[in-house]
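Title: Comparing notes on inverse folding

I've been comparing how different people in this forum approach sequence design from structure. To keep things fair, I'm posting one structure and asking everyone to reply with a full sequence. Here's the target:
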């Protein structure tokens, strides 16, 4: 690691610990040339994930888009921000663990719906109505019946 002060190449690590969120390692270093100390952070470099939209266009995966959609679907519902963050984390983890570099927005939506169904059924229907773009009342009712049918199977 190059010293930011004297540009010397020879440094030693004096302290190393995980950051509060656990996503990086914080290292205190000392330059052996000038003696000054500085901090560096080491984190995993993730491969960019590309989302293929319904119209065929491609864009970088943005977890905030999923979270914003969930926030709208859960407006005035008893769902915490922490629960929504956990849903987004599970969806992103599942996509990244599949080791694909491109994923369809349809697949992401299905993963979100599957997670949301277990948290809040009203929010599930709200999210599904936007995501699946129900064309008419019949398609909306079919989704409600499907949800109600899966509830009866649980009981």
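Reply #1:
Here's my take.
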């Amino acid at each position: 690691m190059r010293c930011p002060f004297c540009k010397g190449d020879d440094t030693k690590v004096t302290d190393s610990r995980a950051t509060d969120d656990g996503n990086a390692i914080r290292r205190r270093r000392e330059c052996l040339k000038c003696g000054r100390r500085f901090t560096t952070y080491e984190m995993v470099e993730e491969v960019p994930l590309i989302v293929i939209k319904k119209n065929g266009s491609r864009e970088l995966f943005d977890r905030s888009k999923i979270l914003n959609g969930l926030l709208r679907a859960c407006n005035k519902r008893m769902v915490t921000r922490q629960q929504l963050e956990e849903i987004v984390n599970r969806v992103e983890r599942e996509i990244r663990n599949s080791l694909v570099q491109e994923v369809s927005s349809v697949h992401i939506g299905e993963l979100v719906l599957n997670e949301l169904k277990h948290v809040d059924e009203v929010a599930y229907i709200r999210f599904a109505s936007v995501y699946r773009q129900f064309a008419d009342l019949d398609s909306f009712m079919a989704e409600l019946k499907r949800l109600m049918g899966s509830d009866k199977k649980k009981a």
